[in-house]
From TrEMBL:
Protein's UniProt keywords contain NADP: no
Location of the Glycosyltransferase subfamily 4-like N-terminal domain: 23-182
EC category: transferase
Keyword entries, A-Z: Glycosyltransferase, Transferase
Name assigned to this protein: Glycosyltransferase
Start and end residues of each Glycosyl transferase family domain: 192-325
Organism: Streptomyces cremeus
E.C. designation(s): 2.4.-.-
Domain of life: Bacteria
Gene Ontology MF annotations: glycosyltransferase activity
Pfam family, any one: Glycos_transf_1
Length: 356
């Protein structure tokens, strides 16, 4: 076993890192922090207030600034939430920059914010950023602010690494992992399941339309991230066969997924990874999905089916085949390709390389 490391793990401050998770990034960060600590590494997780205290959390000072009437009247004033995130990360990076490099062996930026990227040249110890999203203007501009400084990056999939290639030619691909001890095989069932954030880019209304066309019952699960979208696009589709089960904890969600015939995954954007795919497979539940982003890297014909992006009719036609796929093959794919153990091995190897 390699020597324990001192790791600073920077999380997104948009939501607390705790169950039930607001999204895949929070689930991933929670899982990685727990896995590193279980292996004996000392982890300080810099995260939003209210995050799981069992993760060694150091809460970032996220609070709305007190602004004068004159400042609030400025027509160019940004969203107050932008200001609170900006100053929270600014204080963190100034603190890390003031360190002599002996506090941490490696700093792992797992956030989506531009400031840790822009200020990484000021940090003395090894630091790298995981790319979780397609290119964004804020991150691209932060990368280009480095000048001669050569920053280090990893990416969660080959697809994501490729999308960033014009600016990051050598991102280390380390795929997100799922804890197969928590996402345990289930017996399957008759109904379908869709789970994730209820937002337009995840397309749950398309899953509802496909399930209805296929004559299948569907349970939708997840936090409502866009109330207007839910009320306008999804609520009218709900009935006795298409139901919304709310926002479930990890244990209840894994049980529901394991009791489902197949999971529908309907991204309306190029999914950078697709953690719900790995979670479903770990439960032995085959996946029927749109072929967008990195989903084709995870799914094989033995554990899932892929329809053309946005094609509800094609997705509905594939459901019958997906539900007949072998559940043991789905579970083995999760164990072999996207396990927590493999992800943690890859990250700790990368940490040791950088620390050396």
């Amino acid at each position: 076993m390699s020597d324990p490391l001192r790791v600073a793990l920077i999380a997104s401050v948009r939501f607390p890192v705790k169950e039930p998770f607001a999204g895949g990034l929070e689930a991933h960060t929670w899982t990685l922090a727990r896995a590193l600590r279980e292996r004996g590494h000392r982890v300080d997780l810099f995260a939003a207030p209210g995050s799981d205290p069992g993760l060694g959390v150091r809460e970032l000072p996220v609070h709305l600034p007190v602004l004068s009437k004159e400042a609030r009247a400025d027509v160019s004033m940004p969203d107050p939430r932008w200001l609170e995130e900006h100053h929270a990360y600014l204080r963190l990076m100034l603190d890390l920059a003031a360190d002599d490099g002996r506090r941490y062996d490696v700093i792992h930026n797992n956030s989506l914010h531009y400031l840790p990227v822009a200020m990484s040249p000021a940090v003395r110890g090894p630091m790298f950023t995981t790319l979780h999203t397609p290119p964004t203007p804020w991150l691209e501009s932060a990368m280009q602010a480095h000048g001669p400084h050569r920053a280090v990056y990893s990416a969660v999939s080959l697809h994501t690494a490729s999308s960033w290639h014009p600016l990051v030619a050598d991102a280390r691909v380390i795929r997100n992992g799922v804890d197969t001890r928590r996402w345990r095989p289930g017996p399957g069932g008759d109904q379908l399941v869709w789970f994730g954030r209820i937002v337009p880019e995840k397309g749950p209304h398309l899953a509802a339309l496909a399930a209805r066309k296929a004559g299948r019952r569907l349970r939708l699960v997840g936090p409502v991230g866009d109330r207007g979208y839910f009320d306008t696009n999804l609520r009218p589709l709900l009935d006795e066969n298409i139901t919304y089960a709310g926002h479930l904890t990890g244990r209840d969600l894994a049980e529901l997924v394991g009791r489902s015939a197949a999971a529908l995954v309907t991204p309306c954007w190029d999914e950078p990874y697709g953690l719900v795919v790995a979670e479903a497979l770990s439960c032995g539940t085959p996946v029927c999905a749109f072929d967008r982003g990195a989903l084709g890297e995870i799914l094989t014909p033995e554990c899932g089916t892929l329809a053309p992006p946005g094609d509800v009719d094609a997705l509905a036609d594939l459901i019958g085949h997906a539900v007949r796929l072998d559940r043991g093959s789905a579970r083995r794919r999760a164990e072999d390709f996207c396990s927590l153990e493999a992800m943690t091995d890859n990250y700790t190897d990368f940490y040791h390389e950088l620390a050396a």
